[in-house]
Design goal:
Radius of gyration: 15 Å
Helix content: 55-70%
Order of helices and strands: HHHEHHHE
Strand order of the largest sheet: 1-2
Structural class: mainly alpha
Strand content: 5-15%
Number of domains: 1
């Protein structure tokens, strides 16, 4: 990353993630409630459907505009090395890795998780 950006706090990032997860959960219920999907999830099937909606929603938004709803609310954005959105393929990779949790917990000194390193992205203050 050549330009300098303000690093967001871990708290802001976690709140943004929680907002995105609740939105994905409610979206999954709205889209798949006819199939019995509930929030909170009633089992692994519900959780997998919610996770699929989460990956889809977050990947599209991050890839195209550089922020998810949660990131926007918390004043964050996701950038590639030239400061632009990372594109959908890299956003899908990042979001799938984020879903596994562990890649997000292991961080570098500049607060980039393994999911960000793999996608060539960085979360910054908007």
């Amino acid at each position: 990353m050549t330009e300098t950006y303000d690093e967001p706090s871990l708290g802001r990032r976690i709140v943004a993630l929680l907002i995105d997860w609740v939105i994905a959960s409610l979206s999954a219920v709205a889209l798949f409630g006819w199939a019995g999907v509930r929030f909170p999830p009633a089992g692994i099937r519900d959780q997998l459907i919610i996770n699929g909606v989460f990956v889809l929603e977050v990947s599209i938004l991050l890839g195209l505009v550089g922020f998810s709803i949660g990131k926007r609310v918390m004043g964050l954005r996701l950038i590639n090395p030239d400061g632009r959105p990372i594109g959908i393929p890299r956003a899908v990779l990042r979001t799938v890795l984020l879903s596994f949790v562990i890649p997000a917990i292991i961080m570098t000194e500049d607060k980039r998780g393994l999911h960000d390193l793999a996608a060539g992205s960085k979360v910054v203050r908007a």
